[in-house]
Every structure is written in structure tokens, then in C-alpha cells.
Write the C-alpha cells for this entry.
Amino acid sequence: VARTQVRGRLIIIGGHEAKDAEGDRTILELVAARAKRRKGDLLLIPVATLDPEHALREYQEVFHELGVNQILQLDVRSRDDASTREAVSLVKRASVIFFTGGDQLRITSQIGDSPVFQALQKRYRQGATVVGTSAGAAAMPETMLISGAGDQSHSVSTLGMAPGLGLIDGVVIDSHFAERGRLGRLLGAVAENPRNIGIGIDEDTAIVVEAGSRFSVQGSGAVYIVDGATVHYSSLTEQEADGVISIFGVRLHVLGAGDSFDLTKRQPLPTPNARQAAA
Amino acid sequence: VARTQVRGRLIIIGGHEAKDAEGDRTILELVAARAKRRKGDLLLIPVATLDPEHALREYQEVFHELGVNQILQLDVRSRDDASTREAVSLVKRASVIFFTGGDQLRITSQIGDSPVFQALQKRYRQGATVVGTSAGAAAMPETMLISGAGDQSHSVSTLGMAPGLGLIDGVVIDSHFAERGRLGRLLGAVAENPRNIGIGIDEDTAIVVEAGSRFSVQGSGAVYIVDGATVHYSSLTEQEADGVISIFGVRLHVLGAGDSFDLTKRQPLPTPNARQAAA
């Protein structure tokens, strides 16, 4: 999806967004607000999980509490389910499309290039919001991280990548970032091709991407940007696939709620309030 | 300790260095080689742990297997134990002094500025090797990290620092780095004062510091360098101690075995072999 063609937005969540009515549900309130503002339908697609009933119950309850009246669901268990006329018409009606968590390879293998995905891509270009949490977040870019232990420094052999949905260019996204100590695998992914900016999103934290070129941060955690454009040495080779990958000169930014990032210029911007306070 | 005065070296280990005779004990072999080469005594100081007998048994066995004949021990359970003439003479005889793991505050509170520490500092200046693993590693710099959850992004309120032994200037050291996902707390420590270079050491991995100004990496994991000198924005304030700390423009290097780092120039250097291969 070329950036200039896009009128929609992406809400990409690091997983475990707060759902409890007693607490601060910033992220899901943001999603609900999009659905209510556009007076359209919110479509839940629990394709990533093997227990879609559970995911549907959980999100239907929360979004109902948050005042969303039209909640639809698309239960895709095979590629055939992603090709029916009914499925495509559900996507065409939706103004917010929500991918829940689970296994990102289930999302791409069942939906990738299907009539449902083509309809979704068109809706996104026209202005719909596409939301993904956890596996739904990882699946957004052209290339997605699928494996790599979170508790060790990375070698080429332990890092798994696969083609993603392609809704956003030039980035690789990891979720549950601080919680599962995933710096090593995100650095490995960026070392493989520094063209991609690595984005690590903490739990209960989201990036809201506008027109595919800029995002702002919301929620209680942080977003880590790993920019390999300045890397001046990397030891990555197929031959020594088991060794630690040395990488010198990575640029790293940590963004909190309200901060934003320009993907084209590769530049972070602090919250407007913080800028005033500093001035 | 001013760098120019130092003739000794530090071996700073990220914890859980391999001890099994069946495996690759690179790190402890390095320590043993220092002791054998200098024909001096290896002195174990298990002051960080509440179970010094266990630590002593474990290391005595390994170093015996590795051919070190003169293994001494200094069991410090109070500041009085760190002031006796016997304790000081043990340190004076040692050519390698080894701080085992546990709680870094026990090391500094029991030994800091004691006659034992003064003797140790003198031995280090003269050429002795001081080794620390885990808590023993964290205690080496002038300022040490003592707390901060490894599974969340950092706020000022969750980060604990305390004065360390002061054997190395201008750095903050964290151990068990990838294994416990400690990027957040090391970034927090560097944000508090970018003068300090953050050094995160994986388990079974060590840095060998020469003359306090340059180190090389050994072992199976990676060493992460967090350099805050290039930071152009940081949101850190005492007022908002619970919020995530935003930090833009950190320089990050990942070093593997054989790579080295110049602390004065703040520059990494790849292994000599890798440089040849790249040329």
C-alpha cells in the first residue's frame, strides 16, 4: 500500500490492552471512539486464535460497555471462510476492523491475498481504521517477526521472519516489548535489513498511524524505535548463524504517551505539552 | 581511581558463567589463566550472598578443576570482618580477587571504604585482577543499579541507584541483560545522567577491562552499550516520576565475543578477524 494512497489509520497495540471497567482503558476507548465517530460497524476478526469464541466474548463485552452499538464478527477458520460473499460484505460495511491476538501466521495464511483482505485493503485506503493487538500488531507490516526467544541475544539461526499483511511499509513490529525482553530479536530483524525501522510496543500501549507515514503513542507503556540507518558495522552472516550478531551504531528512541514519530524523516517528536514546558 | 594510575584489570561477568566441566567454561578459564600466569593467589570474596558456604564450595571446585592451586577465601559478614589484619593480608597476597553474586548492596555496605577495600584498590592499581559476577559486576562502577523491574519500561520512581565500589569510572553496569530484559532500566539509568555509559552484560559473558579505559568481550552472549551522549530530548523529571521516560537519540551497540570498546572515545571495534574478513 503506497503511503500517498492511504486515507485510513492503523491502531497497532502491543498486546494486553486494559479491558477492566474499573481501570484506565485508553487504548480500547480510542478504538471505540473511531467506531462511534464514523457511525459505522466495528468488525472483530479473531482469526489469529484457536479459541475465537473466547476472544469474541471478551471484546464484544468491552466494546458494548464503551458504547459501540454495531459490533460484527468474522470467524475465519479456513481460506474458504475468507472468500465468501458474506465475509466480503462484512468488511465493506466496517469502519473499524480489529484483529485480535494469537498466532500471526494464522492471520496471514488464512487471510493473505484473499477477497476479504482485498476488501480490507480498499476500505483502509478509503479511510477505515484497521486495529491489531499482539499477533494482530506483528502481522501489519510487509515483513513480520514470528519467532526468536525473548530471553537471549540473537543469532541469525534463532530469528524467524515471514511475509506480513503489508498494511504498513518499511517497519518491523514487535509486541509485549519490555514485558518479554524482546530487544535482541528486534535488533536482529533490523540488522537483517536496516531499511526497516524496528518498532517495539509495550503491553497496554499503541501507536496510531496516520496515512502510513507518521504515528503517535498512546497508553501506559513505551514504544521503542530501533533505527539501523546509522549502523556502521554488523557481523551478520549466514555462515556463522549461531554466533551473537554484533551491531554498532544503532539509533534508539524511547517514546511515551503523546510523543510521535515521523516514519519518512525517521524522527521522533515530543508531546506538544513537553515541548512547551521545555521552551 | 583515575584511569592513568591503573595497571590492573577488571573481569566483569553478567552472571551464570558456565561452570560445568562438560561445557565451554571460557569465562572462568580466563580468570584461572590470570591466577596461574601471575603465580599468585585467587581470593574468593562471597560477601554478596547470605549463603557464602555454597558459593565457596562451588567456585573452589571449579577453580581446582581449572588448575588453580592457591585458592583463598575471605568470609566477610560484617564491617568488622573487613577491617582485621588477617583480612587485609589475604588481599595483599592475592593476584586475582573474585566477588561472587548475590546482593550488590551487601558488597558496598560491608566492604566500601574498609581497610580491605583500600588494600584491594591498591592491589588493583599495582596490577591485580578484580573479578565480579552478577551483583559483583553491578557493584564495580561509582554508581550501581540496585533495582528496577526487568519487565517494564522505566519511570523515575521504579529505578534504584546507589554508590558502588568505584573501581571503574563513567559507566553503569547491568548483568543478566537479555535474560531478564533489562534494557528499560539501563536506559533509565543513562537518562538520569548521560555522562555514564550503560553496559548491559548477558549471562555467561564478560568484559575484560584494561587500565580502566578499554574492554574486550568474551563468552557466549552479547554486551549492550547504551550511550546517551547523543540524546537530544529526555522527558525525565522528578515531578512526573510515574510516567514512562521518553529518550530520543540514544546510540546503541551490540558486541559479541572478540569485539572491543574504547571507553574514552566511546567507540566499538569489531574483532580483528571480522575486520580482516570485511576488508
About this structure: Chain A touches chain B at residues 150-153, 177-184, 187, 202, 220-222, 224, 226, 233, 235, 243-257, 259, 268, 270, 274, 278 (CB under 8 Å). Residues 12 and 223 of chain A are 11 Å apart (CA to CA).
